[in-house]
Amino acid sequence: RKEVEQDPGPFNVPEGATVAFNCTYSNSASQSFFWYRQDCRKEPKLLMSVYSSGNEDGRFTAQLNRASQYISLLIRDSKLSDSATYLCVVASDKLIFGTGTRLQVFP
Amino acid sequence: DAGVIQSPRHEVTEMGQEVTLRCKPISGHNSLFWYRQTMMRGLELLIYFNNNVPIDDSGMPEDRFSAKMPNASFSTLKIQPSEPRDSAVYFCASSFMQLNQPQHFGDGTRLSIL
Question: CA–CA separation, B37 vs A102, rounded Å?
Answer without folding.
Answer: 16
